[in-house]
Every structure is written in structure tokens, then in C-alpha cells.
Amino acid sequence: METQDFRFSSQISHLALDIGGTLIKLVYFSSNGDHCEESRDGTSIVVRNNGGSVLQGKLCFAKFETRKIDDCLEFIRFNILHHSGDQHQNGTACDKLTVKATGGGAFKFADLFKEKLGIVFDKEDEMHCLVGGANFLLKTVPREAFTYLDGQKEFVEIDHNDLYPYLLVNIGSGVSMIKVDGDGEYERISGTSLGGGTFLGLGKLLTKCKSFDELLELSHHGNNRVIDMLVGDIYGGTDYSKIGLSSTAIASSFGKAISDGKELEDYQPEDVARSLLRMISNNIGQIAYLNALRFDLKRIFFGGFFIRGLEYTMDTISVAVHFWSRGEAKAMFLTHEGFLGALGAFASYNKTQSHDTNDLKPHHHHHHTVQQREETFNCSGEISVLTSFDSIVPDQLVFQIGNKMVYHSSFVEEEGITKACGCPLLPLKSHIKGPAPVSEQDRTDIVDEAITFFRANVFFTNFDIKSPADKLLIYLTFYINVALKRLEGCRTLAVGTKAIINLGLEDIPVPGEAEFPFPGLFPLPQSNEEADLFRNYLKQVREETSGRLLSVAYRANGTPNKWWLAFAKRKFMNVVVL
Ligand SMILES: Nc1ncnc2c1ncn2[C@@H]1O[C@H](COP(=O)(O)OP(=O)(O)OP(=O)(O)O)[C@@H](O)[C@H]1O
Ligand SMILES: CC(C)(CO)[C@@H](O)C(=O)NCCC(=O)O
């Protein structure tokens, strides 16, 4: 069994996927160990099941481009998201999950996921999930909905008794408009094919830019008046006030291109991107308003990844809704705009599973401090609070709890184990020469633990040492950080191996020497023999760690595994690794 195979398998549950035309969205709940002693003091997520045991957890979001579906498969495989948490506490089982999936890709890619990951999709209807996700957020997460007008973002208090009916406009590749009358009560009343896919598709053709972010960045610096024909252009600079159009209103999107006698190359791509964004956003705002009007809906919530919290987009949509409704209807946006479908699929576990910890219900929690986003999620009766988040890799937000090292070594039994500098010289599954006793090959050793827990522990800037073995875990976490830093630029396993061999040739400081990274962590050696014994042990354990690290940081074909190498940039315990 590979070391990482048991890493998060006992902590991840409720993976849900929304596989759309452009993006794949992932949501999963990750608990940090099931019998957490920490009190609910606002710095940790605490979830109790009916038996009274406690789960700490975080809610993780990730997204991938659908055309790069292999990245998504690899991410799921690497993080072992496809293994059920609740049944496999010991990490020995390898049963696969039935995973909630929605979006067109739940159909299109079902066979691929089954073949590559053994995942069987439990398909949920896309519209149902969008509504489920929106209701879940609006009722559960404080400061989820907000208005955006005149550059001002204002959070909207949601009155649970006065939420329905509302119009949900999901701007993905295409746009769906859904009238929502209650939980599970909805009707898709309209849609438009001029959506996020149109913006990105036309944008790529017209500006030659490669990505959505690039296109957004371009649009940020552009001026739509260069290409859009304004009312003033037609009316000689004056308003057409009789019908309520100011001179600066757009009379015809891209309309100037016909009269200017210019070619595409004569325009700045920035201006093209700006006009395009304006055109799509305006059009959606207008169609949304017309549909709200059809059913007398006053509130319109906009979601989907097209919005991306972009001020210009939100402003355009808001102005369109405000303008056409003469201030009657309100455009509102959602903080988790892009994850409605995935959250709806995630929340749908609630309906189909009955055992305790899978019972996800919204619940409010009031006394926590929150850095940026906050969520409360409940697994059966108690409260979970996310207090801060950190970004591991681009496109992935991981909500992090508290600031204490949470994974501890299981090697608490010290009997019969030699120590040097207060550090137990724990057995290793190693053939490398050194003072470590040889461990049985099928048992977890401290190197397995260090690698397994690394990506969680590297986030923490302080720790509480529960046993002397934890000190070794801290040292190895630091060492893995050092080794990853050396691997950072190494594009092949061969080059990486060389870098690691060179690292192995460097002097190894021991406590009492200036270069030792954690002064005070270990007692100083009492003799030269003790210093040498510890140095030799550290050399052996470092070498062993290096070998196993190479096998996780590079794939079988010798190319780097970016999910691992992304961690080279982390600072562990505020120690800067060079
Ligand atoms: N990083 C990104 N890469 C590609 N498109 C992005 C990105 N970020 C935002 N977008 C925009 O979001 C749109 C996709 O939004 P979303 O993920 O909500 O829809 P989808 O589920 O893929 O589509 P559909 O529901 O129509 O199948 C894209 O068309 C694009 O306009
Ligand atoms: C086809 C879906 C529902 C797929 O998510 C979406 O892309 C969409 O709503 N498109 C608009 C289709 C229309 O109503 O014209």
C-alpha cells in the first residue's frame, strides 16, 4: 500500500461534483479526526454525532476546467476523495464511494469516473441541485447574498420566512433562469444560450487570449465606448430623453465597428473584451428582469462562475435590472456563486443517508470570528464553524480550522526505545544504514506519518507536542518542506533525484548547533556520542523520507505531481526554507 493511501480516507466525506460544460466543481467535507477534545471556542469546527463523539472539519471547494478532466481525476485520486470516510477509520479498506454528481458531465463522464476511480455517480438533477445549493446557502450562510450598486457591496439579511418566490439566474456556459417557490419547489422558466461560454468563446476568438482570467484582465483595462455605439454617437452627443436614454447609454453593442471602417486588428483587445463583457452581462440582466416581470418576482439572485465576483459584471447586471425595472427589482449575488450545483449535490446526501454523521443540516453559530468567508455546516445536531481559509493551490480554497498542529504521531509508547536528545529513535522500514531499528514492512512508521500528515501539518504555525515522537514529526515535516523546495524546479524524476542526493550530502546540524532549525525543541546532547548518534539517526531518517517523497512527488512516468510540489512554497512554523 502506498503511504498516502490512508492519508485522508478516514477524514473525507461527502464528495460531490458538478460537471458543467466548462468547469468541474468539487465540494467535500473533511474532518480532522473524530474524537477531538477541543472545546467549541470559535477557533475550530466541532461536530457532534448523536453518540456524543466530536468531529472537527472543514469544507473544501475546488474547480477544474472540464477539458482538463484528467487533473480533476488526479486530484480526487491524490486526495483519496473517492474513499468513504465513515466506514474506514483504520485506513485499511479501499471500498469506493457512490458519489453525488450533477451537471451534464454526470452523464457524459460517468463511465470515465467509474473506469479511472471506481466511482459510481449517484446522479442528481442539475436544476434541482442549483436550487438546493442556493436555498442551502441563503438559509445557512450569513453574509452570503449581497447587492452591488454604484461600487457598493451590501450584504442582504435573508428573512427565512420571506425568501420565496425568487428568480435564480445561473450563468454558466449557458444561462438557466429558475423560479424558486420553496425547498424543492421550482420551475425553469427561461434560459439563454448567450452566457459565460459565449463570453469566453467569442473572447478567445476576438482577442486571442487563452484563458478566462486573461480575458477578464484585458476587459479590466478596456473602454467599451471605443466599439459600442452609444446613443450620443447617433444623436450628436445629446440624450434621447423622451424615451429615457442618456447619451452614454449603449445604443448598439459593437455597433461602431461598422462605421469606423476598421479591422479587428485596429482595435485594442482590451476594448473588445470590455464591450463583450458588457454586452453579455447587460443582456442577461435584461432577460432576467423580463422573466422576473412575467412572474412578478422582486428578487433575482445571480450565480454561476461567469460572475467571479467581478465588479464590472455585477455592476452591469445590477444597472440593467435596476434600469428596466425602474428600481422595482433587485439583483443580488452570492458569495459561493460558482458552487450552487455542487453544494446542492452535496446537500442532497442529507436526503438519502440516514446514519448520524452524514446528516448535514444547516445551523447557525454566532460567536466566531471569521477572516473572509464563513460557513456553518452541521453533521447531525451540532455546529461546525469555518474560521479562516488558506489557498493551497490555485483554484482551490481550503477552509482551515484553528492554528494548531492537528495530526500527532501514533508512536506514544516509549518502552524499549533508545533516545538521543530526547528524541525516540523510532524504527524505520528502511534498508538504509543507520542506528534505527528495522520496523516490520507492513507497519506504518514515522516517515509514513510525516508524509501522510505533511500537507495538513505544514499549515500550522504552532503546535502542541503530545509525545516525544511528535518532535520527530515536526522535524520531518520541516525536512519534507526543505526537500520539496529543492524539488520545486525539477521537472523530471531524474533531475529531482539528483537534487535530493545533493541535499543528502549536506551537513546535518543537531540541537545546540546554530543551523538546527528548531532551537529548544530537543534537549542538547550530553556527549559527543549522543550528538553523533542523533546526527546519524537524522541522516538515516532524512534519506528514507527523501526516497519516499520522490515516489509521491513524481508520477510513475517521471513527471512532477503538482499537488505535492505546490507545497514547496509553504512556510512551516514560520521557518523560511531556502
Ligand atoms: N477559470 C475559468 N475557466 C473557464 N471559465 C471560467 C473560469 N472562471 C470563470 N469562468 C466563466 O464561467 C463559465 C462557466 O461557469 P459554470 O462553471 O458555472 O458553468 P458550467 O457548469 O461549466 O456550464 P453549464 O452549467 O452551462 O454546463 C465559463 O463559461 C466562463 O465564462
Ligand atoms: C444546458 C444547460 C442547462 C447546461 O448546464 C445550460 O447550459 C443552459 O441553461 N443553457 C441555455 C439553454 C437555453 O435555455 O437556451
TrEMBL record:
Pathway(s) it belongs to: Cofactor biosynthesis; coenzyme A biosynthesis; CoA from (R)-pantothenate: step 1/5
Domain of life (superkingdom): Eukaryota
Keyword Cell membrane included in the entry's annotation: no
Any one annotated GO CC term: Arp2/3 protein complex
InterPro entries on file: ARPC3, ARPC3_sf, ATPase_NBD, Type_II_PanK
The protein, known as: pantothenate kinase
Source organism (scientific name): Microthlaspi erraticum
Key words of the record: Actin-binding, ATP-binding, Coenzyme A biosynthesis, Cytoplasm, Cytoskeleton, Kinase, Nucleotide-binding, Transferase
Reactions listed under catalytic activity: (R)-pantothenate + ATP = (R)-4'-phosphopantothenate + ADP + H(+)
Alphabetical list of SUPFAM superfamilies matching this protein: Actin-like ATPase domain, Arp2/3 complex 21 kDa subunit ARPC3
